[in-house]
Design goal:
Elements (H helix, E strand, L loop, with lengths): L3 E4 L19 E11 L4 H9 L9 E8 L5 E12 L7 H34 L7 H18 L15
Parallel strand pairs: 2-4
Antiparallel strand pairs: 1-2, 3-4
Helix pairs in contact: 2-3
Length: 165
């Protein structure tokens, strides 16, 4: 049975980039939830990734915008992704490959976190409009474009294909 490792850490995401130099948001929280993967071969690892009952994909990011009537805006993000346990059971080459893939997943999912963060910051900059659908549509399209451009992260290296022994 897979264990979940809850790393409930409020992470100071800091300035989210060039477009966010001022402190716009009252709160920013990032939560990682890990599910265990492990085995003696890449094939065993792939089976666990594909059979993940926690989510229907290898990793997932969800974001939440919190807003009060007086336009105090907060942002929460949750990333679910794999964690390699018992890496010593893999060959050195396979272990490096799995670690590389997990890091690529993290980098890809963090790009989704930042898209959600940009959305929250833009809501705040626009004075918390009641109808935010135009902003939501725009930033959701950016997430879709990211996945289209990267093949859902595949081009970012979030795969183990071609490594099965």
């Amino acid at each position: 049975m897979k264990k979940l490792f809850w790393l409930l850490a409020t992470v100071a995401l800091g300035n989210s980039g060039a477009i966010a130099q001022e402190k716009l948001l009252e709160t920013r929280e990032l939560k990682f939830i890990y599910y265990d993967i492990g085995g003696a071969t890449i094939g065993e690892i792939l089976n666990q990734l594909n059979d993940n009952s926690l989510i229907d994909t290898w990793a997932n990011t969800s974001t939440i915008l919190e807003m009060t009537a007086d336009c105090k805006v907060g942002f929460k993000a949750k990333v679910i992704m794999p964690k390699l346990v018992h890496p010593e059971t893999l060959s050195e080459e396979d272990r490096r490959e799995v670690v590389r893939m997990i890091e690529a997943i993290k980098q890809h999912e963090m790009r989704h976190v930042y898209i959600g963060l940009y959305y929250a910051e833009e809501v705040k900059r626009d004075g918390c409009p009641e109808d935010r659908s135009y902003l939501l549509d725009y930033w959701q399209s950016k997430g879709d474009e990211l996945d289209d451009r990267t093949g859902g992260g595949y081009k970012d290296g979030t795969h183990l294909f071609g490594k099965i022994k």
